[in-house]
User: Fold these one by one.
Assistant:
Number 1:
Amino acid sequence: MKITNVRARVFEWKGKTVPPQGNFCSNAMDLLYSPVETMQTFRFHGWTVVEVETDTGLVGYGNVALAPRIAKQIVDQYLAPLVLGQDPWDYEYLNQRMYRATHAWGRKGVGMAAISAVDIALWDLLGKSTGKPVFKLLGGRTKEKIPCYYSKLYRTDLDEMQREAETYLKQGFSAFKMRFGHGPAHLQQGVVENLKAVEAVREVIGYDTDLMLECYMGWNLEYTKRILPKLAKYQPRWLEEPVIADDIDGYAELNAMNIIPISGGEHEFSLYGFKQLLERKAVSVVQYDTNRVGGITMAHKINALCEAYSVPVVPHAGQMHNYHLTMSTLASPMSEYFPMFDVEVGNELFYYIFDGEPVAENGFVQLDDDKPGLGLTLKTEYLDQFDILE
Ligand SMILES: O=C(O)C(=O)C[C@@H](O)CO
Ligand SMILES: [Mg+2]
């Protein structure tokens, strides 16, 4: 099998969107005085879809969500020439080729995200060419089905958050992730607001469910140290990305406090970066996203690394490029699950672009043994609501 063409297209949503309500979600911009409304930097309304075509007629699909227009340029100008004419089965060689050729500028961030999209498309091809789902190529089914946690609960009105939690509890979810709306800029009043929100959600979901708390890098070390003991009584399973991704010392210090397990890795990009996080005991849960860390080839290696350190992997986002890895490794006990809603943050867009993304039933997602590759096709239903950049 030989690669004959690589096509990268940006899908930019132009349809109706739901404006973020209330304090919505803390994020890294919150610590900075800014005339820019911070939610503008937080919304992700575009996606790059990469199609790798072959001389067999098979086409593999990959995707990247970060900085989609730049990712497309990287695929077009730098990565496509490196894989054209090559055999997708040489995926390790091709991954190294892309990683090393772009290393001067690409080793963290959007460079790696673009590599990920091509790599994911290669694995989709491998599955399609063998008639097997990707998880089979990675080692097979380690779970009957994948437990997943409901991930939304942005910081809106507390009654609304409670209604949301109740609805999804009734649908059978037994694990939830909520977002904080306040950080250091909101002073002690914000601490109180944060605690009230966790209490409100626990009031509805009880204590026989898991609750995860998301900061999305909107706090700092001092603030987190102050609030951690106050949050402990709500028994969170983890506290996610309290500080910016580069502050590995901060993660290590917070995790060593042993009050609440600290999770991270959603904004880490390389195998070496994860080695550092693990060596430093900086996180108790690793949350890579396969469409950021160099694709399935690299995520598979990170799983092995985490297995050896006995640190669980719960990838960022659901989505097929992550589900296949979660299914095939014991290092990964469960998945994140973004429900399909009207377009708001943009996490939902995956459902609007692709057909085949599984829908959770009773808090589990299932992968089909008989669907080759990733099991995704392009959806036609919403095509007129995207601007598509060729
Ligand atoms: O789902 C997460 O872990 C994210 O960080 C997604 C982002 O949308 C913040 O809510
Ligand atoms: Mg997160």
Number 2:
Amino acid sequence: MTTTTDFLSHLNPSQRQAVEHYCGPLLVVAGAGSGKTRALTYRIANLILKHRVDPENILAVTFTNKAAREMKERIQKLFAEQLAMKEHGQRFDLLTEYQQMQLRSQVYKTTIKNLWCGTFHSLFSRILRFDIEKYVDEKGRKWNRNFSIFDESDVQTVIKDIVNKQLNLDDKKFDARSVRYAISNAKNQGFSPQEFEREQPNYRGRVISQVYSCYQDRLAENNALDFDDLILIPTRLFQQNEQVLGYWHRKFCHILVDEYQDTNRTQYDLIRLLVTNGEESKSEWEWRNRSVFVVGDADQSIYSFRMADFTILLEFQNDFGDGLPDADTRSMVKLEENYRSCENILQAANELIENNTQRIDKILKPTRGAGEQIYCHKADNELEEADFVINQIQTLENQNPEVNWGNFAILYRTNAQSRPFEELLVRNRIPYTVVGGMKFYDRKEIKDVIAYLRAINNPSDTVSLLRVINTPRRGIGKTTIDALVNASQQLGTTLWEILSDETSVNTLAGRATKAVNNFAAMISRWQEQVATLPVTEVLQGILEDSGYVQDLMNQGTDEATDRVQNVQELYNAALQFQEENEEISLRDFLSSAALSSDLDNLKEGQTAVSLMTLHSSKGLEFPVVFLVGLEQGLFPGYRSLSDPASLEEERRLCYVGITRAQERLYLSFARERRLYGSREPAMRSQFLDELPEELLATQRKSYQTYTKSASATRGQQQTKQNWQVGDRVLHKTFGIGEITHVFGEGNKVSVAIKFSNLGQKIIDPRVAQLQKVD
Ligand SMILES: Nc1ncnc2c1ncn2[C@@H]1O[C@H](COP(=O)(O)OP(=O)(O)OP(=O)(O)O)[C@@H](O)[C@H]1O
Ligand SMILES: [Mg+2]
């Protein structure tokens, strides 16, 4: 008979030490692929199985929704295996399908559904659905439980409106994007508009703080929150209200955080408040039956542009170990074996990251064989690079029966790089997903339908009402809408209060009176029914009543048919949501929709090539990885070339990319690239030069075939000017340097020169009047 802790045999001794840790703080630091996430997952299982912790008392924070789902699936599997032995005396995989299904559903009901496991945003939006009514902001404003979550495009709409109409600012100087970024930064640092204004030394900053203040007014008027609020407001609420904090502190006795190196200050504040109940430190006694367990790798900290701060990880032991004897030795575990990547890949990653100065040295030992060499491909341009990658994918897929499309990932620095790969994948009929690209929930038709649901759920949500009031067209024109909006602004009421009052509508809406009244009556009707009907019925009902789908069908174009299918897919999502969740009200569905991304659609074992930015690839692994666009100015990015700290961040990003690969890694760069419109010569990334040469193979054969076809389309190759790699040259400003690359042909030639103090620069020799020196 198997015991309940048998699953611990899947762990090495250090992982086991981490998993079996029960009370107090514990930090697990280790390099990529060393089983940190596995340790965290198993620890949850161990808390429940061995220490009999109620799943409701566990809070597990992951970096993506996909990671949360995977974690829950793993735990479900572990538990089902345990139950199989206990109830049937058999291994799970030997049971009948029916028995397996029964066990899984039993585990789901008793454990998984009660576990609080998700991203910071999803977990804390759930907490706000309980408690936001107890929160009061600095101006005394309140929100109710049905709050809407504004996504990026809602936020941009609101900001544009404030800049252009409310404050009459020049939208070139105060473009919505940069203003939004500044406001988001302020929020991530925990500043209210007033606090932010006090920090501003100049005119621009003060104007932005004014926009911030108006923006907060709008959010409050709409009973809405943005993504940053989902973190900031719980922090404030916890600081404001001891009882609320006390409740959640008592509830979550065990808190676990994955990817802790990418936590920002406000997220950290939240965790700290929950762990300590707002007290300075905890004595040994107070840690009884309580723990905080975080795992991370400072070398994989890649979100500093979102204010992530890996010193939070480095300070963990001081932060939470205060008041404990020998906190230093007791509260940290290091993992040193890498289980993911073949030795060559791992060695390349290790050598690369050693070039960073800001790091703590750590050991990462291979457990797998050397594997293949890393292939480095030099392409003529971005099209030929894509050609190379897709060819390799096809060849590997054809040659190996056990390989499927899901084994491949193409990773790039910026989203804009995906297009040539996508085009070739489509042309070759290879299934693929773009992770984190155009999100399903960003599509127009989905946003329209969601806006209907949001307006029903939260009638104060003017942004949503305005989106659907005349979609599909029902004869409510701009003049009527303006009149209604103006009236609401002048009276200081919500738009809905005007719309739902027939007398006001009759006075204001002119010829559109009937249409407006019908629209308002339709929304009210569904508002009344929402409490008693499942989401799917509300959705179907509003789609019929509003004529939205009918209108699309009448259009009869391919595009409209696509849109109808997407709306159908949303219905499927609602259905799935109802089947999977306990809390199935419309507001919960809207929260989950607002927080999902395409990353969620990538299911385990799915057979499609994955395309994503390096940032989205964190925590994932693939047998074959193509890391493309390794060029100076692209990766590392242009701005980081003159800023050592951000160069180190780019290097960490490269480390993340390399360590996603399990068996094969391909690196590529192009000599010339068209990006954002213009075609520019490019130079191989310095990161390539930082990798051990003996591990790299250049694919001569395929390189030659590809260059042949590419140059054939361009016509005869012209001879280069007499500049050659290795030439020593004198530049009138930068002094003497050595040519490392020659780009372009004929009179379009440019050269890369390495200057001893300045690094490499690309220069047009004619403009710079370069002179050769001996
Ligand atoms: N003790 C072990 N024995 C065998 N395989 C293991 C062990 N621990 C982890 N693995 C496997 O190694 C791979 C990497 O594990 P995991 O994703 O947990 O690493 P990680 O440290 O979280 O990586 P990252 O830093 O990229 O997030 C996974 O496929 C996992 O199943
Ligand atoms: Mg991990």
